């Protein structure tokens, strides 16, 4: 239950601590500029849904945060500590691998395609990074692993291989793998897009539960109901820029931008 | 068919088999140890290193093993003064050393390319997950990429081991008494070529089949996660 206490936050207690701040993030692939200056703040306990049509840069933005893509310019800070800064050569030309690895381990990602390590059992998947990257003692990691597997409801699958599980179970295992890092925040990259429709629900239920437990989450998603009902903040990206930003009520209730209105009206939810 | 000659030859043939198996085991193990770092260099090393390793595998896979063996064994004799000066002659003087060197370099070249292909076959998502969870390049290679690459490589690698075992028959040409060498010596003495080479062939057959059975078990264990 330590895992909860680290990310738990009671919003009623006043202003939350800023955990992630992104300032003027740009990313180009060759001549194509995909992110044109995105700024964003996430506070402890926030659930931020990032919406946008394909090509809006939402996945690239998420992948830049943990440096699966190297941003072109801009700043990323996690709890005040730099993750990336284009002004600092430590992050660009000669990247400090140790620092990058450490920061990544504080904001693990849940992928669209699950990407559980296929040669490891579910338990091994959950234990690998906490024991080898965070160097936690084995008995502690196993206890933690079992507790997060129980939280996502697949403790009974601990000794199975990913290929033996349904997509929904695999994604829940992937969420458990992220939780076991005791992360500052979790990045979700379209976590339900690769699932059969009947399996989407079980994953969203787990994510809702985490939101209620005030786990800080950044979720790129097409699940409008989730974005509207669960998020504390909704960000709508369009052509590499934040086009609209606000509470779910603001963005879904009275979107200021024409593009956002169009997007929401063409998306069924 | 002269069974008496065969039965009398059996002890010597078993000695020869021992030589064959020893040579195979030593060169396969050394070859694998060399091939793993070379395969990593080939798939994710800097371009210059990749080029050097490629030149090496290109040469050893593109030329006959017998030519390589003669090049090392007889070719080194031509440089005897220089090798003596460098205090290396003791090594090249011994056909065993020449055979182990040549066969190791040969199998290492093939194995490098087998493992390289397998490394490239590991899905991108597996590497990205390893990155996203803060693993260092070394941890990613050791914990995720190599274990998966080995399970992709094993069917092809099993063939490589069998080929290597059969290829060791060539060492009889540089005076090493392996299974083929022993059979040749006795056949020349008794004129029972048919009997001895057939017996040697049966020896190879049994050993290859037994080896495949063992390797199949290894494969089953390594690829357990993929077959279920």
Features:
heterodimer, A: 269 residues, alpha/beta, six-stranded mixed sheet, four-stranded antiparallel sheet, 10 helices, globular, B: 228 residues, mainly alpha, MetI-like fold
Question: What assembly state would you assign to the polypeptide chains in this entry?
Answer: heterodimer
Radius of gyration of chain B: 21 Å
By secondary-structure content and strand pairing, the structural class of chain B works out as mainly alpha
Q: Please give the largest β-sheet of chain A.
A: 6 strands, mixed
Task: Briefly characterize the structure.
By secondary structure, chain A is an alpha/beta fold.
Describe this structure in words.
The complex is a heterodimer of chains A (269) and B (228). By secondary structure, chain A is α/β, with parallel strands linked by helices. Chain A has helices at residues 2-7, 58-65, 97-106, 122-132, 138-151, 167-179, 197-212, 224-230, 248-253, 258-266; strands at 18-29, 32-43, 47-51, 73-78, 81-85, 109-110, 186-189, 217-220, 233-238, 241-246. In chain A, 37% of the residues lie in helices and 23% in strands. In chain A, a hairpin with a 2-residue loop joins strand 1 and strand 2. Chain A is globular. With 228 residues, chain B is mostly helical. Helices cover 86% and strands 0% of the residues of chain B. Chain B contains twelve helices and no strands. Chain B has helices at residues 3-44, 47-62, 65-73, 75-78, 80-85, 89-93, 95-121, 124-132, 137-167, 179-190, 193-222, 224-227. The N and C termini of chain B lie far apart (50 Å). Classes of the chains: A alpha/beta (269), B mainly alpha (228). The interface between A and B is medium-sized, with 33 and 22 residues.
């Amino acid at each position: 239950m330590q895992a909860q206490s680290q990310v738990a936050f009671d919003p009623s207690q006043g202003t939350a601590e800023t955990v992630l701040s992104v300032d003027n993030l740009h990313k180009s692939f060759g001549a194509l500029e995909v992110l044109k200056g995105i700024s964003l703040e996430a506070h402890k306990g926030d659930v931020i849904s990032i919406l946008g049509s394909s090509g809006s840069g939402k996945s690239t933005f998420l992948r830049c945060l943990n440096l699966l893509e190297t941003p072109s310019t801009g700043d990323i800070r996690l709890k005040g500590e730099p993750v990336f800064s284009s002004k600092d050569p430590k992050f660009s030309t000669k990247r400090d691998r140790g620092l990058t690895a450490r920061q990544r381990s504080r904001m693990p990602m849940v992928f669209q395609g699950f990407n559980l390590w296929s040669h490891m059992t579910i338990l091994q998947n959950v234990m690998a990074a906490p024991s080898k990257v965070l160097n936690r003692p084995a008995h502690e990691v196993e206890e933690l692993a079992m507790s997060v597997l129980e939280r996502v409801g697949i403790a009974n699958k601990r000794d199975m291989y990913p290929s033996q599980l349904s997509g929904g179970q695999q994604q829940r295992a992937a969420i458990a793998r992220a939780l076991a890092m005791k992360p500052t925040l979790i990045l979700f990259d379209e976590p339900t897009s690769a699932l059969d429709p009947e399996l989407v629900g079980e994953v969203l239920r787990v994510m809702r539960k985490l939101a209620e437990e005030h786990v800080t989450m950044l979720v790129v998603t097409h699940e409008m109901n989730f974005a509207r009902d669960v998020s504390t903040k909704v960000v709508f990206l369009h052509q590499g820029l934040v086009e609209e930003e606000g509470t779910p009520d603001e963005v879904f209730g009275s979107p200021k931008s024409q593009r956002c209105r169009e997007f929401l009206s063409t998306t069924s939810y | 068919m002269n069974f008496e000659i065969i039965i009398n030859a059996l002890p010597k043939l078993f000695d020869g088999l021992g030589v064959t198996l020893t040579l195979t085991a030593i060169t396969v193990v050394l070859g694998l140890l060399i091939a793993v770092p070379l395969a990593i260099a080939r798939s994710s090393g800097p371009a210059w290193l990749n080029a050097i390793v490629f030149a090496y595998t290109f040469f050893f896979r593109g030329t006959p093993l017998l030519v390589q063996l003669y090049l090392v064994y007889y070719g080194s004799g031509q440089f005897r003064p220089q090798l003596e000066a460098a205090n290396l002659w003791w090594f090249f003087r011994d056909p065993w050393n020449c055979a182990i060197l040549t066969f190791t370099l040969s199998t290492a070249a093939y194995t490098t390319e087998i493992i390289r292909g397998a490394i490239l076959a590991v899905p991108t998502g597996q590497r990205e997950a390893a990155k996203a969870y803060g693993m260092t390049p070394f941890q990613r290679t050791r914990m995720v990429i190599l274990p998966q690459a080995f399970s992709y490589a094993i069917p092809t690698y099993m063939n490589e081991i069998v080929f290597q075992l059969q290829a060791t028959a060539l060492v009889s040409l540089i005076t090493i008494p392996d299974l083929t060498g022993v059979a040749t010596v006795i056949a020349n003495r008794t004129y029972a070529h048919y009997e001895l080479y057939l017996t040697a062939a049966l020896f190879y057959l049994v050993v290859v089949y037994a080896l495949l059975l063992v390797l199949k078990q290894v494969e089953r264990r390594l690829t357990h996660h993929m077959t279920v």
